[in-house]
Design a protein that fits this description.
This protein has 298 residues and is α+β, with helices and mostly antiparallel strands. It has helices at 105-111, 139-149, 158-173, 191-206, 214-221, 225-236, 240-258, 263-269, 275-286, 290-297; strands spanning 14-21, 24-31, 37-41, 47-55, 57-62, 67-72, 75-80, 88-92, 96-104, 131-136.
Length: 298
């Protein structure tokens, strides 16, 4: 049975399905209501499912409600089970957004044909096993997801744009650190350290306008700088300040879109004392100035 056409949603929430090509789809569901919503879709066992919770929280329901997996904000869930079908049955909490990518295993193999063994569940030993993996949405992935959700270009190029963004998202999802081998690094085995690293991320985000130095951050969470840097790279795929830069630029982009602050005010809110420094940083990230970006929205 191929991908089914049954979509179930209630109230005034927004559901959108975009077919990239045969065996490759993007689903987006925005629940801006004050009550939970549901969406259901038949999916056959030849498909990989990537679910990204951009905002709020979502529950993936299995076996007619007998089992469920939670997907929290800024987290993802990868599902694959060649032995049985995994129909999509999502319970989406109020004020929550989720983006899903569905891709056939055949098409997915083609993307990684030169190094398929790198993807764990594509190895010969695991090829016929079910695979469930949850993960954190990196700042780079969050940018792509928000670009998909906030698509505002001409409808004639939507399919091309979505295809490019879907490939970009999968590339970021499977990106490997050249200098970090999770299997050889015992760092992440220690849950206490993981909690400390996540606390470090929260500190940087909450104080993005005036962030602490690496030493101050390390002291505050109770780790030495070496473990802080290694752990942050392992969990978030980037250095502390590179992560913070991406986060600040994403916040700045959203503030500019909201239109309540001018360029100077936005720059100040994300920690730039002069507008010229903010403009240079924004252009480095997005390839355009804040002013031109705002003009492109209208």
């Amino acid at each position: 049975m191929a991908i089914g056409k049954r979509i179930k949603s209630v109230a005034q929430s927004s559901f959108e399905e975009t077919k990239i090509e045969d065996g490759f789809l993007i689903l987006m569901f925005k629940n801006d209501e004050s009550v939970a919503q549901s969406v259901a879709k038949e999916i056959d066992s030849t498909f990989l499912q990537f679910h990204f919770c951009v905002k709020g929280a979502t529950k993936f329901v299995f076996n007619q409600g007998r089992y469920a997996l939670d997907i929290h904000e800024e987290n993802s869930l990868l599902l694959y089970n060649p032995q049985r079908e995994l129909p999509i049955d999502l319970q989406i909490e109020p004020n929550s957004w989720i983006v899903s990518i569905l891709i056939s295993i055949k098409k997915f193999h083609g993307l990684f044909s030169q190094e398929a063994d790198y993807i764990t569940f594509l190895s010969e030993d695991n090829r016929d096993k079910k695979y469930y993996k949850d993960g954190v949405i990196s700042p780079s992935m969050a940018i792509v997801l928000n670009q998909l959700i906030n698509y505002s270009l001409n409808s004639s190029i939507k399919q091309l744009y979505f295809k490019g963004k879907a490939y970009e998202l999968l590339s970021l999802y499977f990106n490997r650190s050249e200098d970090a081998d999770v299997e050889q690094c015992p760092f992440l085995v220690d849950e206490t350290n993981v909690i400390k690293i996540r606390k470090a991320k929260d500190i940087m985000v909450s104080r993005m306008a005036e962030p602490p130095s690496l030493q101050e951050l390390a002291d505050e969470i109770g780790l030495n700088i070496k473990k802080l840097k290694e752990g942050f790279k392992q969990i978030y795929g980037d250095s502390v300040f590179s992560f913070l830069f991406d986060y600040k630029m994403e916040v700045a982009r959203k503030l500019l879109e909201a239109g309540n602050d001018n360029v100077n005010e936005v720059g100040h809110k994300v920690g730039y004392s002069t507008s010229s420094h903010f403009i240079a940083a924004f252009k480095k990230k997005y390839g355009t100035t804040p002013k031109k970006y705002v003009m492109s929205l209208s």
